[in-house]
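User: Hey, quick favor. My workstation is busy. Could you predict this chain's structure for me?
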Amino acid sequence: MSADQEYYCKKCKHSWSVDVANGATFTGCPNCKSNMPVKTHELKTDSFVFDSVVMGYKTYEIRKNDRDFTVGESVLLKETKYTGEEMKSGAPLVYTGREFKALITHLLQGPVYGLQEGWAILSIKPL
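Assistant: No problem, here it is.
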């Protein structure tokens, strides 16, 4: 059984998969030989949203684009015990331990279609 990790080269725009289940590791772009690391963004995620992503109903994230998200990078969604609103009101940041890793396959950045400047919609698919 393979466990493919998908990569995207920012330099030449080439994408490829590596079968990490068989011990393969990232060695650089096979097309242009660039050895650029792939960034993973760790993101806090409310439980009700997390469940929708894990079940496959939600295939996008709407996020403040303060991390310079890029197609080909990955996100690690980390479920939180309390919602963002509860944490704003004083609840502590507590992770449940559940995580979900996904590849950013498309990026729509505001201002466009009602999406404000500084915000982005990330299309994601499970890794």
